Amino acid sequence: EDQVTQSPEALRLQEGESSSLNCSYTVSGLRGLFWYRQDPGKGPEFLFTLYSAGEEKEKERLKATLTKKESFLHITAPKPEDSATYLCAVQHYSGGGADGLTFGKGTHLIIQP
Amino acid sequence: NAGVTQTPKFQVLKTGQSMTLQCAQDMNHNSMYWYRQDPGMGLRLIYYSASEGTTDKGEVPNGYNVSRLNKREFSLRLESAAPSQTSVYFCASSESRRRNEKLFFGSGTQLSVL
Fold first, then answer.
1. CA distance A98 to chain B (A)
2. Contact check, Cβ <8 Å, B104/A46
3. pLDDT value at B110 more than 90
4. Do A32 and B99 make contact, defined as CB atoms within 8 angstroms?
5. So what's the pLDDT on residue A15?
6. Is A87's CB within 8 Å of B42's CB?
7. What is the pLDDT of residues B37-68, one digit of tens each?
8. CB-CB contact of B19 with B81 (8 Å)
9. In the prediction, which pLDDT does B98 show?
10. What's the distance, Cα to Cα, between the start and end of chain B in Å?
11. What average pLDDT does range A83-91 have in this prediction?
12. Strands B64-68 and A107-112, how do they pair?
């Protein structure tokens, strides 16, 4: 069964303390890996798409990387406004039917001042 | 910019009642989706509409029906609500369902079925 697993489930950091979030996946026929940010009471907001192993994308303090088995979301010198739940999703070829996104459960990130 | 608008934001139903969740997007997107989000689980696809005039089942379609009213609007109907349908529902849209297309989400509807 195709799976997307995110770790850790929750992470508390001090402002300025860099860290990484992990998304591991077991799907065949990867078409793209997505990172979303979700604030409380809101819908997810798109951050990045990664297509192939070795690819990297950056946006402000965030950098996403992709290998054949997992993706990392690196957060450099985070600020309190980076606090959110970060969702990973994988789009894969299903051979028909609903080949939509498979989402992980998310990592709840808290940045303390 | 409105983006994806969902109504209502909150709803409480009794078991067996029916209701329709409304969704509209103003980005001229072709594809629209309904997801549900439950604690401890990832977002799960209920139904989607790849283009105006078509709808297809997702991962968890049982107990739901959808209507793609026009290019802008995609509604989700619960005919006979059950407590298992207590969840947060998100509507989303994308330019198309082709590879790597990113989704734009609404702000969600929190539904409780008693």
1. 5
2. yes
3. yes
4. yes
5. 97
6. yes
7. 998 888 999 999 988 999 999 889 999 999 99
8. yes
9. 72
10. 35
11. 95
12. unpaired
Separation of alpha carbons B105 and B89, rounded Å: 10
Residue B97 pLDDT level (bands cut at 50, 70, 90): confident
Question: Cβ(A50)–Cβ(A71) under 8 Å?
Answer: yes
B98: distance to nearest CA of chain A, Å?
A: 10
How many C-beta atoms surround the C-beta of residue B21 within 10 A? Answer: 23
pLDDT at A97: 43
B108 touches chain A (CB under 8 A): yes
Q: Are A15 and A69 in contact (CB under 8 A)?
A: no
CB-closest option in B57, B102, B108 to A43: B108
pLDDT score of B113 more than 60: yes
Q: Which residue has the higher pLDDT, A102 or B105?
A: B105
CA distance A61 to A112: 16
Residue whose entry in the numeric block shows the structure tokens 């977002």: B43
Nearest CA in chain A to B4: A43
Using a CB-CB cut-off of 8 Å, the residues of chain B touching A34 are: 102
Residue A42: list chain B partners with CB under 8 A.
107-108
